Amino acid sequence: MAEPPREARKRIKGSPEESKPSFASAPPVARVTHKSSACVSCQRKRRRCDGAEDQPCTECLKLGVECIFDRDSDGRRKPQREKAKRDQILLNKLFDALKNWPSGKFSRLVAIIRHEAASIIVRPFDVSHYPPAVQRQQLDMANIPKQLCSPMIYLAEGAADPLSRAVLSLLADARGRIMRGESVRDLLSLDGIDLELYFRPRRPEDTHSVSTMACDLARTTRGYKTFPLQMNAIHSVGTFLRWLILPCVETWEMMNPLMRPLKAQVLTPHDSLYPDFIHIPQLRLAHLVYGRQLDAFTARPNWADCNWVLDHEACYEFDGRSAYPKRLSPAFIHHIEDIRNWSLHRSVLDVFPEIHQN
């Protein structure tokens, strides 16, 4: 009997698993590596980061620390940075070589470069749907400290809704009074937002200040229909208006951290101030960047809740000189400035799925 071939002998001696029919294997799948850019705090503590350079992450908001993104630590950008360095070295060598050219040829080349560069500078303003003046303002804002950048609401046709027109009028009046030498401390309520006008009617002798503006807006603006929300609006809107009238480091530090403008508010032109008054940063970002509509939920009286478990009387304090409450209590201010104490209605999460994921 003829001896079976060597390949057959291997199959006979092999294990049962080896004798099973083999199928054509699928082509190898490239390994996918998920990389993300996390803030410095989340990198140190090795936790998931849901923030961006123009939006602080949830953990930093909870801890009350500044959310900083170190672009140099992002490995995805390292090749681009190295390429930029190589290009810069080559560019320097090119300029050194051009300097040794005859003066006539070098002058003609410089003239051509300047002509082409001028046309390139104009092109970015043409491809966007924003007017050139707005785009130049966006470029200017990108290089200004965040404490000095106001939301971009000044379009050519002006603010569209009555709320924004009223606020812009108040801002112009307040800045004019400051230039005329009136007391900045009284006008900006630097000693604290005064609640008295919320609890009583306006009198002829009442002067306009940040406190009176905030109380009027809290009573009349849609979306503030529960007492805790109205008290939160007085503090949040009042501290925001104080900074909007006089943008500086001091008024920025006194502002409710949740109200501090995001880059989207500064760089995205919008014809209404109402989004800037929403105290949830993620809602402002989703509205301006993704076009989510705020009117879908702000008509609900319970669209947001700060979960204040104490009585309403614990929200404010008296100063002994007036029969009306004077200041918000430090405990209430500390409570509403903590994003962890806020909850949103389910309808809000349906319209803003990004918040539900966070």
Features:
358 residues; mainly alpha; 2 domains; two-stranded antiparallel sheet; 19 helices; 4 strands; globular
What does this protein look like?
There is one protein chain. The chain has 358 residues and is mostly helical. The protein has two domains: 53 residues; 219 residues, no CATH class. It is 51% helix and 2% strand. It is built from 19 helices and four strands. It has a two-stranded antiparallel ribbon with strand order 1-4. The protein has a two-stranded antiparallel ribbon with strand order 2-3. The longest helix is centred in the first third of the chain and has 25 residues. The radius of gyration is 30 Å and the shape is globular. The N and C termini lie far apart (75 Å).
Please write out the topology:
Layout: H1 6-13, H2 16-19, H3 40-45, H4 58-63, H5 78-99, H6 103-127, H7 132-142, H8 162-179, H9 184-187, H10 196-199, H11 210-220, H12 227-245, H13 249-254, H14 263-267, H15 281-290, H16 295-298, E1 304-305, E2 316-317, E3 327-328, H17 330-336, E4 343-344, H18 346-351, H19 353-357
Antiparallel strand pairs: 1-4, 2-3
Helix pairs in contact: 11-12
Sequence of strands across the biggest β-sheet: 1-4
Low-confidence stretches: 12-35, 118-127
Termini separation comes to 75 Å
User: β content, as a range?
Assistant: under 5%
What is the overall pLDDT average? 75
The computed structural class is mainly alpha
Could you write a compact summary of the structure shown?
With 358 residues, the chain is mainly alpha-helical. The chain has two domains: 75-127; 139-357, no CATH class. It has 19 helices and four strands.
